[in-house]
Write a structure and sequence with these properties.
176 residues, 6-stranded antiparallel sheet
Length: 176
């Protein structure tokens, strides 16, 4: 049985810059039920999929309960266990219920914050090759800096779920 449902179309959302959280004109993308995690090692299953599609620098944990973003890199969040309510897009963004098997892909600058989570909530985070992840809190100074760094973040060559021909590659393809 395949690890990922490659025929799945992701949901997409674009969040506006709110003056503190820059967000990104590229769409925030979420695959619901994308990965089969009904096994004894769902974190390893997600790590294998992300790594096989060229995304690395992985970690296992939850999602911070304070508003933050990453201005130097795009991020994939694979939900391995449990469920959570997460607000993406900053304080003016949108709340989503994420659960085991879902994958959220955040373009650089997308605000995110965990509002509540089940006790077993477990996430695998990953990044495309390039700059290292830095946690950025929403302040006027950080916002000014982020507006300069975000446009310089390179587009990933692959979708962390579906690879080279994945939806993310098409959705984020911007003209040179």
């Amino acid at each position: 049985m395949p690890i990922a449902n490659v025929d799945l179309n992701p949901l997409t959302f674009v969040f506006a810059d709110d003056g503190l959280v820059p967000n990104n004109p590229l769409p925030f993308t979420i695959y619901k039920g994308a990965i089969d995690v009904t096994n004894d090692h769902p974190e390893r299953t997600i790590e294998k999929l992300f790594g096989g599609n060229g995304w690395g620098d992985m970690w296992r944990d939850g999602i911070y309960d304070y508003l933050h973003y990453h201005s130097t890199v795009h991020e994939a969040l694979g939900i391995a266990r449990g469920h959570a309510r997460v607000r993406f897009g900053g304080d003016q963004g949108q709340e989503f219920e994420v659960s085991a098997g879902d994958v959220a892909i955040l373009p650089a600058g997308t605000g995110h914050q965990c509002l509540s989570a089940s006790p077993d909530f477990s996430v695998v985070g990953a990044y495309p090759p390039g700059a290292k992840m830095q946690v950025t809190r929403p302040t006027p100074e950080n916002h000014r800096k982020a507006l300069k760094t975000i446009p310089q973040v390179k587009l990933p060559k692959t979708d962390p779920v579906t690879g080279e021909d994945g939806a993310l590659v098409r959705l984020w393809n911007r003209p040179a």
